[in-house]
Design brief:
By secondary structure, the chain is an alpha/beta fold. The protein is built from four helices and five strands, in the order βαβαββαβα. The longest helix has 17 residues, at 134-150.
Length: 152
């Protein structure tokens, strides 16, 4: 049963993408861990190593979907929050599918168009180790603060 302290996400799904055994590649998961510790309802938090075609069905049940992932790009504030549009085409691979192609599949197959965003968090270290770099931790904190301001 839900407590009064639970922060509802209603029809919003947040997908953390990554691998916490590869240092900063775990930023997406750490973002979800932080939301969970702050009382966000865990039914709307999804941990993924990578996106797969099946995720198109999953997101079709939500009005809003937010993809959170580590980035090797040099990001102005150490993170970015951007609206995401479906790609104009879908290319199948057996490895992983980018978020904009998941949106394409959702629209094409399920005729649903959730509002979508991507949160990119700049990472620096990618070795086999369960530990975020100091700078990645700082970028994570900044991304979480910005997300919470926007979601009020």
């Amino acid at each position: 049963m839900e407590t009064l302290l639970t922060k509802k996400l209603d029809k919003t799904l947040i997908i953390g993408i990554g691998n916490n055994t590869r240092q900063d590649d775990g930023l997406g998961w750490c973002f979800l861990d932080a939301l969970e510790k702050e009382g966000y309802n865990t039914d709307n938090l999804l941990y993924k190593y990578q996106l797969m075609v099946e995720d198109a069905e999953t997101i079709s049940y939500y009005d809003t979907v937010i993809f959170v992932d580590a980035s090797k790009d040099n990001l102005k504030n150490g993170f970015s929050i951007e609206p995401l549009k479906a790609s104009s085409k879908f290319e199948f691979t057996t490895h992983s599918v980018p978020p904009n192609q998941i949106l394409n599949l959702c629209e094409t197959v399920y005729h649903k168009t959730p509002k979508a965003f991507v949160i990119k968090i700049e990472g620096f270290k990618w070795n086999y180790k369960i530990l975020l770099s100091k700078q990645a931790k700082l970028n994570l904190k900044k991304a979480l603060l910005s997300f919470k301001k926007l979601s009020k």
